Amino acid sequence: MFSNKVLGKRRFLLFSAVFFVIFSFLLGPAAVEGVTNENYEVRSPYEGVNWDNYEYLKSSFHSHTIQSDGNATVEESVRGHEEDNFDVLAITDHWVCTYPWEDYGLDPDQFDIIAVPGSEPTYDGNLFRSEGSHMPTLFTEAQSAESNWGSGAEPRGWVLEFEEFLDVIGGREIHPETGETYNGIQFFAHPEWHKQSYEGKDWDWYYQYFDEYNENHLVGLEVINSGNNYSEYNADIFDKNLRKFGWDREVYGFAVSDEHEWDWNTAWTTVLAPEKTSEAVRHSMTEGRMFFVQNLGEGKPPKVSKINMDNEEIELEIENRGGYEEIRWIFDGKIVKTGSSFYFEDIEEDQNYVRFEIWGEGGEDSANVVGSQAFYFGGGDNSLDFPKDEPPQELLWTSVGIFMIMAVAFLAAVLFVGLRKDWLD
To answer: Where are the alpha helices (DSSP H) in 263-333?
Structure first.
């Protein structure tokens, strides 16, 4: 029989071991519960913008003339855009490039507006056209068809297939008809219109092409097109691709008038650039230094005069030129915050970006709207693996396992010591 002294020591050892095991199990989750994921970065498309010196270039990247199915002549379009204070104009007639302006009796040096060569290949599955999308194509004179009928949207002569033309404009392939190489910029036109007119294309149809083609070539899609104004469907396609790619690939939003009937001042893309040159415009477009703008409300749309960003927040400074009712911070199609600031402590679970829209009075068909490109959240492997204030379950249970191993080791040591006769005696 053991003495009371020995039994007391053994009870002490047993209770110590059990207490440590229980304490370790409880402490494991508690110990990592306060761990925060501070190792992330915020990437802003507006980083490097000198807000005091950069030009705000009012840009028209999708418009038509009588060279396809528009009502204005080339001269009427150029003069009209200049009168409405546009700084950049790309005439994007269907299939063909209405450029240079000298071919239409105009001297570009007489206009205070940058002339950007462009066209709109019009792939929608009708007639002999391959299935695809309408694609404003800029900074290149490459054509997707030999010519059109002089009016309307139908091609004539040779016509390149949709993906064939993407390969040509992206510099992957030589143009089969001209034998030349090209290096242009393209974006998808009016997703809403495709949804209404044809079988429709969900977000993943666009995703496959963004995933395949270089982001300096295939840069984004139209969020606002005056044919259907601000479109929740377009915005949804935009947001789903932003969510899917996150930090890994830029996708930019555009606003265009898609002008056919002298209505070019209803929407535009504001490009922030260090100087008013074609080269500076193109570079800023590929960097995302743009806002998309709808102009349907009273007064002028507000101007984002500065974006401040530090370790805690993104803060907007706005010139209230036309007034606005609400600033919406958006992730995955949902408004996650309102107001002039977005605080990083408000990052939601699995949120990998945020963008803002400034809304005036009215709805989608009557409001002034100014929208930003996405601010991306990432770090480590360039994505948020878990919310800032919560550990991933893998980390949680790994920590618990470590504490359990420590507890078992302690128990073994205690029992080893406890069985030593000279200690018990």
So the answer is: 278-287
